[in-house]
């Protein structure tokens, strides 16, 4: 059996579109657009997030922008609603993104609750999700790790549920294995860990739990060598996915010899 | 004519269109999206959409974000 064949059958399907990469990357906090591009490529990311912001009037309108560095024909852009604290602003932002990207429907919905935790405001998130789905958007939704809420968001029609594993940008790693496992077992849409990963082993753990993908930004952009960390994350997501599919051995309390007992000398 | 552009007071010619505003701001032909009074103005309507006194206009683009 050929490894390539195995992998090619294992794609991430979001809103009917297949992706070979299960690592989704953010594009914030990089030194410059060149580093953003190099890290995105090293991560093997096919889906990259973008923020929608007012243009800076008075600054050079012809300065290179994100869409020059990561053109939509090369990457699937995932505009987010970062910075929105209510459903009204989140829905407005998605509509602006759709106009900006020529009718593009795939969005990352995040409605934040407060600046200290950056936890989602789940009431506003549900409200915004309902409106966006009704308006034809394909909504990938950042949410808390509450399995009941994840189920409701799926029922509303979100195309992916994206629970946090720890607070955004905290790098604490996977702090909620049991909640994530519960969400994964119940979900029929992809479950993508969004937020909390600090290093490669965290990404591998998320994938070993059975997550369909991992979305990260700070863990890569904030590393001393972002491009190298992007590469590490790519390997970790692939390794974690392969380990999940391979099926790990059960944990046991006692040792179990690897070599046969029969035929030993003496 | 006074409008609010990206949250700041802005002067533009009486009856200016969205296209004229974008041209004056240097964003003609750039990848931006425009909202007037919380409603999207599609690119195809920039030429024909006349602005009015007191309009709230947003011009946005995509930047890096997680």
Largest interface: A-B, 39 and 26 residues
Helical residue percent of chain B?
10-25%
Helix/strand-derived category of chain B reads mainly beta
Shape of chain B: globular
| Beta-strand content bin of chain A | 15-25%
Can you give the helix content of chain A as a percent range?
25-40%
Family (chain A): Belongs to the ThiG family.
Subcellular location (chain A): Cytoplasm
Enzyme class (chain A): transferase
EC number (chain A): 2.8.1.10
Outline the structure in words.
The complex is a heterodimer of chains A (266) and B (66). Chain A has helices spanning 3-8, 33-43, 66-69, 87-100, 122-134, 147-156, 177-186, 200-209, 218-221, 226-246; strands at 12-14, 17-19, 23-25, 47-54, 76-79, 106-109, 138-143, 160-163, 192-194, 213-216. By secondary structure, chain A is α/β, with parallel strands linked by helices. In chain A, the strands form 4 sheets. Chain A has a 3-stranded parallel sheet with strand order 3-10-9. Chain A has a 3-stranded parallel sheet with strand order 6-7-8. In chain A, helix 4 crosses helix 5 (122-134), helix 6 packs parallel to helix 7 (177-186) and helix 8 runs parallel beside helix 10 (226-246). Chain A is globular. The mean pLDDT of chain A is 94. Helix content of chain B is 12%, strand content 33%. Chain B has one helix spanning 18-25; strands spanning 2-5, 8-11, 33-36, 39-40, 56-63. In chain B, strands 2-1-5-3-4 form a 5-stranded mixed sheet, with no helix packed on it. Chain B is globular. The termini of chain B are far apart. The model of chain B has no long low-confidence stretch (mean pLDDT 95). Chain A binds chain B through residues 26-30, 33, 36, 49-55, 57, 60-62, 65-67, 77, 79-80, 82, 92, 95-101, 168-169, 216-218, 221, and chain B through 5-8, 25-27, 30-35, 38, 40, 42-43, 58-66. Strand 4 of chain A pairs antiparallel with strand 5 of chain B.
């Amino acid at each position: 059996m050929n490894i390539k064949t195995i992998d090619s059958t294992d794609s991430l399907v979001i809103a009917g579109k297949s992706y070979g990469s299960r690592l989704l990357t953010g594009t914030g906090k990089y030194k410059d657009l060149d580093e953003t591009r190099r890290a995105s490529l090293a991560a093997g990311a096919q889906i990259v997030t973008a923020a929608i912001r007012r243009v800076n009037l008075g600054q050079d309108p012809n300065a290179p922008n994100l869409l020059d560095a990561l053109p939509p024909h090369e990457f699937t852009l995932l505009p987010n609603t970062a910075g929105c604290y209510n459903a009204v602003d989140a829905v407005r932002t998605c509509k602006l993104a759709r106009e900006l990207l020529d009718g593009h429907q795939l969005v990352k919905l995040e409605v934040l609750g407060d600046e200290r935790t950056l936890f989602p405001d789940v009431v506003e998130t549900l409200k915004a999700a309902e409106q966006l789905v009704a308006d034809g958007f394909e909504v990938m939704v950042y949410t808390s790790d509450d399995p009941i809420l994840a189920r409701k968001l799926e029922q509303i029609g979100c195309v992916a549920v994206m629970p946090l594993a720890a607070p955004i940008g905290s790098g604490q790693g996977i702090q909620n294995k049991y909640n994530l496992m519960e969400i994964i077992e119940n979900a029929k849409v992809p479950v993508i860990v969004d937020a909390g990963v600090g290093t490669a082993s965290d990404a591998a753990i998320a994938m070993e739990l059975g997550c369909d993908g991992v979305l990260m930004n700070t863990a890569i952009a904030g590393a001393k060598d972002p491009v190298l960390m992007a590469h590490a994350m790519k390997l970790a997501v692939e390794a974690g996915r392969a380990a999940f599919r391979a099926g790990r051995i059960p944990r046991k309390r006692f040792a179990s010899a690897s070599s046969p007992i029969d035929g030993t000398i003496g | 004519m006074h409008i609010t552009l990206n949250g700041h007071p802005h002067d533009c010619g009486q009856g200016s269109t969205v296209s004229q505003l974008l041209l004056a701001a240097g964003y003609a032909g750039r990848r931006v999206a425009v909202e007037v009074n919380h409603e999207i103005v599609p690119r195809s309507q920039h030429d024909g959409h006349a602005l009015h006194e007191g309009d709230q206009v947003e011009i946005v683009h995509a930047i890096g974000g997680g």
